[in-house]
Prior knowledge:
38% of the residues lie in helices and 19% in strands.
Amino acid sequence: xxxxxxxxxxxxxxxxxxxxxxxxxxxxxxxxxxxxxxxxxxxxxxxxxxxxxxxxxxxxxxxxxxxxxxxxxxxxxxxxxxxxxxxxxxxxxxxxxxxxxxxxxxxxxxxxxxxxxxxxxxxxxxxxxxxxxxxxxxxxxxxxxxxxxxxxxxxxxxxxxxxxxxxxxxxxxxxxxxxxxxxxxxxxxxxxxxxxxxxxxxxxxxxxxxxxxxxxxxxxxxxxxxxxxxxxxxxxxxxxxxxxxxxxxxxxxxxxxxxxxxxxxxxxxxxxxxxxxxxxxxxxxxxxxxxxxxxxxxxxxxxxxxxxxxxxxxxxxxxxxxxxxxxxxxxxxxxxxxxxxxxxxxxxxxxxxxxxxxxxxxxxxxxxxxxxxxxxxxxxxxxxxxxxxxxxxxxxxxxxxxxxxxxxxxxxxxxxxxxxxxxxxxxxxxxxxxxxxxxxxxxxxxxxxxxxxxxxxxxxxxxxxxxxxxxxxxxxxxxxxxxxxxxxxxxxxxxxxxxxxxxxxxxxxxxxxxxxxxxxxxxxxxxxxxxxxxxxxxxxxxxxxxxxxxxxxxxxxxxxxxxxxxxxxxxxxxxxxxxxxxxxxxxxxxxxxxxxxxxxxxxxxxxxxxxxxxxxxxxxxxxxxxxxxxxxxxxxxxxxxxxxxxxxxxxxxxxxxxxxxxxxxxxxxxxxxxxxxxxxxxxxxxxxx
Length: 689
Ligand code: ADP
Ligand code: MG
């Protein structure tokens, strides 16, 4: 059997210079080459004639070069146009700002073009993918079949790489060892790995291609899930943290002082948290709940439990406004319980900050609420028993880890209002357990979401005015602060003036990120106490702000905000018993922007919104690499392929349950794969939490 670990140089057709280009694609060995899968496929068993092309469709067409030439517009845009055709008609292919294209073609050459067909004066494809057909015997690889299209760097062309791939597969595919134990493969009706690799490059049919890709994704996900399962098992066994006793009356007293009952979901989650905290194993829990579902109060119960046991609690939040608000609310809620709460934010004067830090270190403070200031060097706790991170999607893995490191294995609760489906969450958040609040407290007013075009902006303002007249308040949110010369964004500062002119008898305030904290606080206080009726603001109020009298949220340039962001902003209203209005003012220019607006109009359910957002942006963008510890996936997509994600999760946990260190012979390849792919030293992943 051939060794796949040898340099890709050994494949026929790869010389030293081409090898360098392959290296740029991350390909060193033959194995890397075999696993460099096509970006997409072209069904060239169905190549069309020009007359068969349908405008609006993605099409593949074969045609001969008739003429070509470039020109530069007055604004300096270079346009290269190539006319090609067959006996049924003519097609124009156009490339922008790629003047070198003129050296690529010769008259009379045959081309395959692929792209979206448009109809102007002529049939046209802008920036098509193309391939020049050379008259060689290897056409059976490139024509009349489903053809792989690879990710490329400059100086490599599809035809060359496809030939190399064919060579590599014909020579080396037998060297591939199937990593899966027989029973997993049989149970899931999986193709042999060799066949899967071969058909992922050169599929014999659509159906086989699907099975081939399924097998490869299965392997990738199984390794991922096995890593997670292994790590989870390690955490449970290895660590010892705080063990909280549930004896005491603090939480009962607190509950009695509240003017409302917990919802069923809240009660369930509080019990989950209590059970975790009781156990000496450190809690590692993610609390997912839509905006306004009442996560803060649930976290507060946990914080009280740790205080009752003589430890300290910390609550970290992403913005100063939010820290201030939480600090005030918590202070009021805990009044009379004899608990010392302190605020630690970035803008404190050095003297005051040092005083508070000292009190935290001495244990004179029970609960600390703070921003990133909490994880600065020099902030030391006497005995931090529970660390809570609110709006965790605003923090990175590292920041959560630093907070955790302020104590020895403290209990950890992270909260998010961007909930995602369970299997996905379990995968992305690796070793976290998951709690979900899936209902809102009763008695909330309905939120209506409306969409106005920019020319109807006045209507939105009239709506806000009407609400203010009956005693409510409104937010108007803008994407940026100062109008820049290039953009046509209506800046918040300018808008505040305009609104003040429009409604001289209304009290209009302005809030933005560049204000001093003390001014932000003053503005928020004025809004809370109704001295401001319409608050013009930038995105700084995105998360957490809780003012139940506000009933209107006008979002200017709504097309510029992300979907989760829009939903968060909408979460600022509908917090009281009044009916509320979220007005999106927008002029969406892209399909993505339109689908975001549509999603907002379609649903008010945070879980559905998050799913949509994931779909629109894709997992990479959605989570951002710094948010999670997922290794890069090459083939699978955790959103698109979530059914496979689910199946492999079950298989992986079963595997680790039966063979904790993967010592059985039939699992040796999985073990090796884990070490290799995810750099597990001694089968140990780096700690992420
Ligand atoms: P989020 O989950 O968005 O952080 P909050 O914790 O800010 O939500 O809660 C929103 C509001 O709902 C707060 O004013 C809070 O006091 C209130 N609240 C929380 N739980 C309940 C409940 N069970 N019944 C009524 N109001 C509640
Ligand atoms: Mg909150």
